[in-house]
Amino acid sequence: MKVHVGAAATPEEAEAIAKSLAEHLGVDVDVHVGDAETPAASAEPSEPSYPLDDDLGPTDRERDLRAEIADIREGGPEKYRDRLSEQGKLFVRDRLNLWFGGEDGTRGTGDAGDGDPAGVKFEDGKFAAFDDWHPDAPAGEDGEENERGGDRLPGDGLLTGAAEFEGRDVHFMANDFTVKAGSMASKGVEKFLRMQQRALKTGNPVLYLMDSSGGRIDQQTGFFANREGIGKYYYNHSMLSGAVPQICVLYGPCIAGAAYTPVFADFTVMVEGMSAMAIASPRMVEMVTGEEIDLDDLGGPRVHAEESGSADLVARDEEHARELVAELIGYLPDRAGEKPPKRETKPPKFSPEGIDELIPESPNRPYDAHDLIDRIADAESVFELKEGYGPEIVTAFCRIDGRPVGVVANQPTERSGAIFPDAAEKAAEFIWTCDAYEIPLLYLCDTPGFMAGSQVEKDAILEKGKKMIYATSSATVPKQTVVVRKAYGAGIYAMGGPAYDPESVIGLPSGEIGIMGPEAAINAVYARKLAAIDDPKERAAEEERLREEYREGIDVHRMASEVVIDEIIPPSDLRAELAARFDFYEDVQKDLPDKKHGTIL
């Protein structure tokens, strides 16, 4: 405590005042004479602020409260808790212990109450809906007892609070499936909204541990369409989007309104044999459309990992889901505007000296883009997202010299690396997310361009390709582009080509940039000329001559000579070159036009 006394006070008087106040108040005291910044005297209390022989302690009132908290922590009806093991899932509080427990995985005694995981800082709303179910709840305002005897509703089926996860402060919510199948009602909705709104204030990441059957239909009054009802979830998701990382893990069937939280999150993890999400249940689908389908085929992990693209990752079980999120969050900052965390550099899994031999000379021969990334990235740092969706493009986080980087790589083993609608959409979302969280981008270009044909037109290749080009155009993080081999057509545009404000475009000696590949070009330009040659050998020789002539015009050396690209790099030097360029351009500033926002989503 700082105390000011009159300027006429003597040092002895200041010391006496300091000692007296320190003893009386039980706190440290600094006494300043007049306006002096330095204290003239300081004192500490010689005794605690309470008597050492104090024999006061908790009364029955506190003991009763602790008993109520212990009862709440037991969750919903015992019969529903007993069924969890049959479903292969943890009780929600055991799940929190898995996520936020101590190093040995055991419970600690946290601030949130006895038995809480060591990493839980506090919980909000344990007593939500308490008066609606607890037998010891007080009588209602009209003097009559509240309704008793129905299902237990501890916390109204939702847990919210703050915790430490992998050294990071996070907000969390977790459905309690033992309370009416994790369904949402008014008190739980209020808790969810408060958690989101507090995340907007703190700027800390949010973990959604979802296991909800949707809105509680028989109790929808007061939370469905209200201004502060369940619809506000998705407004808040939208406000949080790009402001703080939102990560959602699904532990059960999330239907209707509950299914929107995972798709609004930046990253969604589903668990095999357990997770599902759909706009309506199979029973409702049959009622509306007549289609008979089970939940796994309607919205299970395979559907959303391979067909809809709504799942970023699929976990084997609950433990694996936590492991995946622990690795994922290591690439992300706490909030927008901060740099993602760096780590110590590691040599790559395979030597960069093998890159040149890995890349076939023929543009039509495949190689695996993962093998190329493993020769560029730090060992054990490659973390792929949406692996089964749009496989013609690989989207992955990695580290190069310890720095997180988002990689967008064409995959020649999948339809020659041509860009299909799903791949374009996947890449656009990944680029957009990297840009939101200050993660630099690396494009590894080896594509014949966007796919053509009637089916891809029906699948919106133009619309989805537009989104990829828009995301690349709008990204203001440092961008490096490598022309690995073929860069044909509009593929070079989507893959961060020279016109898209990259910090560098560098080529490997195998690189080619052109409107189209040699085979297509010769067919388009010289088909009649070649058809007029009767001798097959002469025609083949002329075709080969034209092909080589065309390739000379699109060769990376020609592009470097005309300063289309910045440099040609020996493949063995690629990792070191990229590390140096990402380091140099780490703090590059790029501005977008002054406008509210673009119109391309």
From TrEMBL:
InterPro entries: AcCoA_carboxyl_beta (IPR034733), ClpP/crotonase-like_dom_sf (IPR029045), COA_CT_C (IPR011763), COA_CT_N (IPR011762), MCCB/AccD1-like (IPR045190). Residues 29-62, 132-153, 334-364 are annotated as: Disordered. Residues 354-594 form the CoA carboxyltransferase C-terminal domain. Residues 335-347 have a biased composition (Basic and acidic residues). Pfam families: Carboxyl_trans. Residues 56-344 form the CoA carboxyltransferase N-terminal domain. GO terms for cellular component: methylcrotonoyl-CoA carboxylase complex. One of its GO terms (molecular function) is methylcrotonoyl-CoA carboxylase activity. Transmembrane segments: none annotated. One of its GO terms (biological process) is L-leucine catabolic process. Gene3D superfamilies: 2-enoyl-CoA Hydratase, Chain A, domain 1. Residues 36-49 have a biased composition (Low complexity). Keywords: Transferase. This is Carboxyl transferase. It comes from Halorubrum coriense DSM 10284.
